[in-house]
Amino acid sequence: MRLRSLRAFRDFLKDARRPGHLSADLLVVGVDANCKGFSVRRDLVMT
Fold it and tell me: What is the pLDDT of residue 35?
């Protein structure tokens, strides 16, 4: 499930780079790091 969420987020960012695609002023993304620990979750998101 988490890989699908990260893949969808990356797809969103790719689409958002296209001119005129993203009309939002703010994007809020939340991740629950308690199940794996902050460092593991951060490293997963940063790769």
Answer: 66
pLDDT tens string 3-44:
677 788 888 888 888 887 777 776 777 766 666 677 887 787
> What's the rounded Cα separation, in Å, for the pair 2 and 36?
12
Alpha carbon distances (Å) from 19 to 4, 9, 14, 22, 43: 25, 18, 11, 8, 30
- The residues spanned by each domain of the chain are 2-46
C-alpha 40: how far from chain center:
15
Residue 41 and residue 31 in contact, taking contact as beta carbons nearer than 8 Å: yes
Q: What stretches of 1-47 show up as alpha helix (H) in DSSP?
A: 2-16, 38-46
